[in-house]
Amino acid sequence: MASAPGTSGKCRYCPNPSKYTCPRCNTPYCSSSCYKNPDHVQCSENFYREQVEEEMQGSTVSEESRMKMLEILQRVKSGESVMEAEEEEPLDSDDEADEDLSVRMAGVDLNDSDAVWRNMTDEERRDFQELVKRENFEELLPAWSAWWEQEVQLVQEVKQDSPTSPSYMANCPKLVTVPPFSELTKVTPSPCLPYNILNVLAAYAWTVRLFNGDHQESSQDATEAILTLSPVLASNANYQEAAVAVESPKMEAQNHLWLQESEEFASTVRRDVWKILQGPTPSNKTFYIQAALSEIHVLLNTCKTSLAKKKKSADGQIPVATS
């Protein structure tokens, strides 16, 4: 993954000192332009393709979203903008090419990304890869809506034999049972604790949006992202101001190219933290905070288990004798 700022050595692609390390191949580089160097493009292309495969294989992606991906590929093939609306478009000569792609994909399992790739023409593959190089990859991903943005009805009809839990709980991460703080320790909580929680929530929201909601499927990368973005989790840092605590993940991301995002993205994260703090209802205001912290707990444990299995598998390999 990306290294801490101040990485020693020279950039692989220019005479400047390196500032970062590629999270996939550990190549040192100094800037985004060097990161996109033609000699390094294979690394980013593989990453983007894996992301597409995860999206098309993921159980959270609807059939409508998968068909939308095919529609995007059709527009790329015909040279249209992937952001252009297609409703009520008149038919033109490019429709035959679009229909050809639809026919070829008609018998293909859209959950099988390899099969989809095999049924694309060389030109379609080149167009797709060019789209990735232009950094428009996000346009291929179906829109994801955060669970804390759901509409909550303050008054809900209660039916006989219906679940007693409010409906919004079904869309949130399951809460982890945690003993009261007074049972964990007799020490008086630090006045920094509320601000530290804000820092963790901001790092969580940044990571979840960065992974487009697929953070659990990439638990190791997502865990590294949260630990990198939150000094509270990484180094037991303490905060004394809410604004500084929430802004900290944005500052940390500036040191790691794979975590960097726009100011608009950072503004969205700030709104996310505010919405999580508001909770679903006035009577259950802390529920979203508990849900977010519970999912972080699950994410860290999932990553820990995965790493333990990999270590056990590596330790169990029989070394090859050399003569």
Q: What would your notes on this structure say?
A:
It is a single chain. By secondary structure, the protein is mostly helical. Helices cover 50% and strands 1% of the residues. It has 13 helices and 2 strands, in the order ββααααααααααααα. It has helices at 32-35, 41-57, 63-77, 95-105, 113-118, 122-133, 181-184, 193-210, 219-229, 231-235, 242-253, 263-278, 287-315; strands at 20-21, 28-29. The protein has a two-stranded antiparallel ribbon. The protein is globular and about 65 Å long. Mean pLDDT is 78; it is low at 1-7 and 81-96.
List keywords for this structure.
single chain, mainly alpha, two-stranded antiparallel ribbon, 50% helix, 1% strand, globular, disordered N terminus
Strand order of the largest sheet: 1-2
Unreliable spans are 1-7, 81-96
From the alpha carbons, calculate the radius of gyration and give it in angstroms. Answer: 23 Å
Total strand segments: 2
Look at the helices and sheets and give the structural class. mainly alpha
- Strand content is under 5%
- Count of DSSP-assigned helices: 13
Largest sheet: 2 strands, antiparallel
Measured distance between first and last alpha carbons: 36 Å
* Shape category: globular
Order of helices and strands, N to C? EEHHHHHHHHHHHHH
Mean pLDDT: 78
* Helix fraction by DSSP (H/I, runs of at least 4): 40-55%
Brief summary of the model shown:
It is built from 13 helices and 2 strands, in the order E-E-H-H-H-H-H-H-H-H-H-H-H-H-H. The chain has 323 residues and is an all-alpha fold.
